[in-house]
Write a structure and sequence with these properties.
Order of helices and strands: EEEEEHHHHEEHEHEHEHEHEE
Oligomer: single chain
Shape: globular
Largest sheet: 7 strands, mixed
Strand order of the largest sheet: 8-7-6-9-10-13-12
Number of strands: 13
Structural class: alpha/beta
Number of helices: 9
Radius of gyration: 18 Å
Strand content: 15-25%
Length: 265
């Protein structure tokens, strides 16, 4: 990891350069900080986009990350399962959820991986990993859409304004170097009344507070941004969306925030 090319970041939420150290979360060459201006937690030295497309592509790091977690934090993983059983969490199938909250039509998946947009939507995607993009593009073309091999901002620029009925950002925004700019760009790609589904790790959850650096949402250097519901709402509303939290009741004990961002009609 010592040869990974990086660049410095200011706060991705408010652009302030007032980082407060959080040594509890340091992991090798990577560290997390809290913005003294808005309290957003982020990684101040981020891998370049080229590294995300090549050396840190998801298909190259996922297996190693899973083994590392299982070896280092077996008790923490057991605690998470126990808490979830105790509170009887409802685990909705993600595809069923997308069918319920997104309007039928053309749907864009940002950070689409191998191509996960369910039927009956016409699928489009943006994927930075060339290997995953090729698989996604083949699947999407068979259903009338296609995928773009690019970073999110470059990929969004490849589509016409108002092209989509819905956009998906599922397990993506925490990876994005410039999340605020992506949300601003994405709203222009939605038709009036269109919606954007977001799911990000919930840094304000009970598990995150109890487990600290052992929490499942900590993944360095892949996860660059650590959202609470308040921060996701503020960033979304600042980009012009109407914010609707989907898991309001279970939020305190849910490892993820699920929200719908709505473009005004």
């Amino acid at each position: 990891m010592a040869d990974i090319r990086t660049h410095a970041r200011t706060c991705p939420n408010c652009d302030a350069d007032r980082p407060q150290t959080l040594p509890r979360y340091d992991h090798g060459m990577w560290r997390m900080v809290r913005c003294a201006n808005c309290a957003f937690v982020y990684v101040p030295e981020a891998p370049d986009y080229e590294e995300l497309a090549e050396n840190l592509a998801w298909e190259k790091t996922a297996t190693a990350e899973k083994k590392r977690r299982e070896k280092r934090w077996p008790r923490g993983r057991a605690l998470v399962k126990t808490i979830k059983r105790q509170f009887a969490f409802a685990r909705h199938d993600q595809n069923d959820l997308l069918r319920r909250v997104l309007p039928e039509g053309h749907v864009l998946d940002v950070g689409c991986g191998e191509g996960r947009v369910p039927e009956p939507f016409v699928p489009y995607g943006i994927e930075i990993s060339e290997g995953l993009w090729r698989r996604a593009d083949e699947k999407m073309r068979a259903r009338g859409g296609h995928a773009v091999n690019a970073s999110a901002l470059a990929g969004l620029a490849a589509f016409d304004d108002g092209a989509f009925d819905g956009i998906i950002m599922r397990s993506y925004l925490e990876h994005e170097d410039r999340p605020r700019e992506v949300l601003h760009r994405a709203i222009t790609k939605l038709r009036p009344g269109g919606v954007l589904f977001v799911r990000v790790p919930n840094f304000g959850s009970l598990n995150a507070r109890l487990l600290g650096p052992r929490w499942c949402g900590i993944r360095l250097p892949d996860h660059l941004n650590y959202f609470t519901n308040a921060h996701l709402r503020a960033m979304s509303e600042g980009a012009g969306y109407r914010y609707r939290l989907l898991n309001r009741i279970t939020l305190p004990t849910d490892d993820n925030i699920k929200a719908l961002l709505i473009r005004a009609a």
